[in-house]
Amino acid sequence: MPPLDPLPDNVKLEEPIRLCVAADMLPDGSFGRQWLVVTDETVRVYATMDGDEPKLRLELPLRELESPKAESVVGGGVLEAAHGDQTIELVRYTNAQAKRFAFAARALEKWAKGEEAEEQEEEEQRCPRCGLPLESGTRVCPACLPRSRTLLRLIAYLRPHWKGALALSSLALTGTALGLVPPYLSKPLMDSVLAPSLPRPLPERLRLLGLLVVALLVARALGALVGAAQGWLSAWLGNRITHGIRCQLYQHLQGLSLRFFDKLQLGTVVSRVNQDTGQLQSFLVWGSQDLATNILLIVGIGVMLFVMNWRLALLVFIPAPIVGLLSTGFMRIIRRYMHSFFHRWSRLNAFLNETLTGLRVVRAFAQEPREVARFGEHSGDLASIGTQAERTWAVMFSGMSLLIMAGTLLVWYVGGRDVLFEHMTLGTLMAFLMYVGMFYGPVQSMSWLINWSSRSLTAAERVFEMLDSELEVVSTDDAMAMPHMEGRIEFDSVTFGYEATKPVLKDISLTIEPGEMIGLVGHSGAGKTTMVNLICRFYQVDKGEIRVDGISLKRVRLEDLRRQIGIVPQDTFLFSGTIAENISYANASATREDIIRAAKVANAHDFILRKSDGYETLVGEGGKSLSAGERQRIAIARAVLHNPRILILDEATSQVDVETEAQIQEAIVRLVRERTTIAIAHRLSTLKNADRLVILKEGAVVEVGTHDELLAKEEGEFRRLVDKYQQVSRVRAVER
Amino acid sequence: MRIHFHGGGDHKADEDKGQSLPTPSKLSEELRFLDPASVAFERIGGRLNMTGPDDDERQPVSLVHLFPLSETEAWVSVLDKEGHEIGILQTLKGLPEESLKLAREELRRRYVVPLIQRVLACRERHDLVEWKVETDRGSATFLTRNVREQVQQPVPDHFSIADVEGNRFDVPDLTALDPASRALLVQYL
Predict the structure, then answer these.
(1) Counting beta carbons within 10 angstroms of the beta carbon of residue A86, is it exposed (0 to 12), middle (13 to 18) or buried (19 or more)?
(2) Which range of residues forms the domain containing residue A707?
(3) Where are the alpha helices (DSSP H) in A421-508?
């Protein structure tokens, strides 16, 4: 659907509107509103020029427009088109509108020629409910989050541990109740023992004293016990739940389509699994506890206060919301300072890192004094914000304490009067004051606890969002088992694009016989890697079908497929582990003999045995402790051990020395024996060895044939590619 | 695609063709300054054209700031229609009056980064910050996320803020802002 923004209010059009896009800039570059309106015959631009009424600024016949373009300028863009020999600027806009106007330009071009415009891919960037822009990679809007629903879902994770959860809740209740006891005991302590209104015999008072102190001790001791038990239980429970969620998430990630990972940046995924679950964990372990305890305390104390002296209680309750609000404001300011502090701190770190890494450059250009000065600046910035933050905290904290103190003093005064006028006993006042002392703490904490829970629920929701994303490639129940593949591959009118509107492969048809070696050749972006991705079923085709041994790829059991299709990828990725572990990645139960055989085939055995740890050498992260040539050969050995029927070989382009190159070539020749191989070839030797070459250009197959056949074609695509790169390599040879 | 000619370069095509080396690129190392008095700009059919400096030949050109953040009236590069540099105007002063006007207009069209003159308010909304500002192109409201990471300081006292939609708002000189605006801005630097 082409974008259809609402027309300006005072404009009514009879004709059907094909397109209406609103822009936020006027022709002179200042902010304002313009509208591009396209009907069947005309293109119109309305603008709010000096004044508020949108007026028609420009009107042109659609068919007379040529080469409409969305040109980008710094900070925005211009939609312009040629009309006759004039270049007319239609609309200006800021970056925010760039995508929509790019689409508009393409649509205009098609319509001007009388063709149909393409479909636009709608990118949901704003929350549908509140209109706030969403962070890329998530649809979770922190403003509109249905928190209750997330909370319920979180609680559902408690179900397998319901006994523990129940125990925890009862402990919390008990703990709070026990905590409320000591202040209450001070009432009889005062009234009956220490300062009785009616005379009592001393021994009796002594006895009561003893009893009360013991009761206090017991209450406190039990309270401590309950507290410890609570901590014990909640630590276990919280961690278990998070562990469960983390594992579930990782498992789900392994099942997700690669398309999902293309859309999201790796950093986002890692942050989801690590940080969001981490935040969830700290909340489940501590936050929820604190929150529950706080609420119970506030309610419990509130009740006690009310029961003892409701008028005085009101005096305590009324300022409470004010304290809460002030705390929230206070916290917001402090948080801003802390963010700035951390930001400057990480900037200082980054600076330190950078200049120490580039120390040679600093010295070579004799810039030490300058770098010292810059460091001083960064450090100074940090110190200044640190000072400001701490000072603000100190002032606000003292202010807050004073406020609370004032409240307490008020209670002293009014309560004291009550005692003097005998409306209330001294003991009651003491108890009251103790409760008040316990009251404002939780009230202050509530504000930041609520904030913490809110953020944790948002984190939870992001985690759930990931867990809810659909697994794309799933083996259907009626999937055919194919324990042994012949290795015939057919592409039948296959069309595919990573984005639905931009096909990378267009109507490809090709048959590969079992045991054949095919070389895929073409420019980068021609579709070679894509074809390979489809064979491996990393993505689903948009149109057409791929068949293996006559059966559609979609219908073959995924595990059989994976077992019999092997890949030597272009960037040889090795997992951090030993060489042996990497070679046997396809089959953890491979024997030592299998591993060595595979290494020999790949010409890797020789260099491995020269290493001090031999096959148990650690390869480092991504294989970085090995050279490129060594990595390539291990990747080949890995594929040999895997022993697939169909092999995908995406040749690495990194240069290695002549002797290593010869070894790698030989290893490849051995590897592709008796397998159906599809090679994205860069080496001449690979191309020559291929049974057939398939030349791809812009997503379509343009030539198929043997190396010699294609080279003989004077104007052929293959010949053109070879000639061009011969030139380049000749220049390189001369330069060397 | 690169083809490695290791260990097997017996291509007949190799030896037979007397291949000449590719022509040198059009990028020269000479710096060419244009005398503003010797060129003239005019707008033809919606595009900027330049006449001069050597002959009276007219050609469509585009203008680019070489130091867009610190210099707006100097160090302007003049490019031909393929985007190759014809020469540099070290200063715009000295251009004939009409040409100066057109040059400024053209540059203003190409650089539409609004310059913040006053910061009226900034409000925190969940994980976003909403800014209300007045710029040299009118008043604007924009939202930023992780604002501290979106602020760049390429040149001392010049700050560049990117909002959630990819728009840029610049503060050309922090010290020139009024104290209230500065106080609001500094919170996020």
Answers:
(1) exposed
(2) 489-731
(3) 426-468
Using a CB-CB cut-off of 8 Å, the residues of chain A touching B150 are: none
Alpha carbon of residue A313 to chain centroid: 49
Query: How confident is the model over A653-678, as pLDDT tens digits?
Result: 677 888 888 888 888 888 888 889 99
| Cα pseudo-dihedral A440, A443, A444, A450, rounded to 10 | 170
Cα A87 to Cα A68: distance, rounded to the nearest angstrom: 10
Q: Considering the domain boundaries, does residue A320 fall inside one?
A: yes
> Alpha carbon A84 to chain centroid distance?
49
Per-residue pLDDT at A379 exceeds 90? yes
In chain B, the residue whose alpha carbon lies closest to the alpha carbon of A385 is B187
Q: Do A96 and B45 touch (CB under 8 A)?
A: no
- In chain A, what percentage of residues exceed pLDDT 70? 94
Least confident of A426-435, A723-732, B100-109, B136-145: A723-732
* Contact assignment for A522 to B139 by CB distance below 8 Å: no
Counts for chain B of helices (H) and strands (E), in that order:
4, 12
- Backbone torsions φ then ψ of A509, nearest 5 degrees: -130, 130
A339 lies within 8 A of chain B by CB: yes
CA distance B37 to chain A (A): 27
Residue A178 lies in a domain: yes
Neighbours of A734 (CB within 10 A): 8
Q: Quick one: A497 and A629 in the same domain?
A: yes
Domain count, chain A: 4
CA distance A229 to A232: 5
User: Are both A270 and A214 inside the same structural domain?
Assistant: yes
User: Are the CB atoms for A188 and A212 separated by under 8 Å?
Assistant: yes
Q: Which residue in the set A31, A658, A684 is minimally distant from B140, CB to CB?
A: A31
Angle at A356 between CA A355 and CA A357, to 5 degrees: 90
Cβ contact A684–B68 (<8 Å): no
Which among A96, A112, A128 is the end of a domain? A112
Interface test with B, best of A333, A683, A696, A697 (most B CBs within 10 A): A683
Whichever domain contains A299, its CATH number is: 1.20.1560.10
- Restricting to A residues 237-276, those with a Cβ less than 8 Å away from any Cβ of B are none
Percent of chain B with pLDDT over 70: 85
Longest dimension (CA), chain A: 125
CATH of residue A684's domain is 3.40.50.300
| Closest chain A C-alpha to B126 CA, distance in angstroms | 7
Residue A588, CA distances (Å) to A526, A560, A571, A597, B142 in order:
36, 17, 22, 15, 55
| Mean pLDDT along residues B108-128 | 86
Indicate whether A189 belongs to any domain. Answer: yes
B140 touches chain A (CB under 8 A): yes
Please, which residues 26-55 of chain B have a Cβ atom closer than 8 Å to chain A?
45-47
Residues A272 and A318 in one domain: no
Length of chain A in terms of residues written: 736
Q: Name which of A111-125, A354-368, A441-455, A699-713 the model is least confident about.
A: A111-125
Greatest mean pLDDT range, B43-57, B90-104, B115-129 = B90-104
At A143, the pLDDT band (50, 70, 90 cuts) reads: confident
B20 confidence band (pLDDT: 50, 70, 90): very low
Judged by CB atoms closer than 8 Å, whether chains meet at A726 and B126 is answered as: no
Q: Which residues of A touch B124 (CB under 8 A)?
A: 332
- A104 and A162 assigned to the same domain: no
pTM of the predicted protein model? 0.66
What's the complex ipTM? 0.75
Considering A112, A146, A165, which residue would you say is the last residue of a domain?
A112
Chain A residues close to B19, C-beta within 8 Å: 726-727, 730
A80 shares contact with chain B (CB less than 8 Å) = yes
Closest chain B residue to the Cα of A731, Cα to Cα: B21
Residue A667 lies in a domain: yes
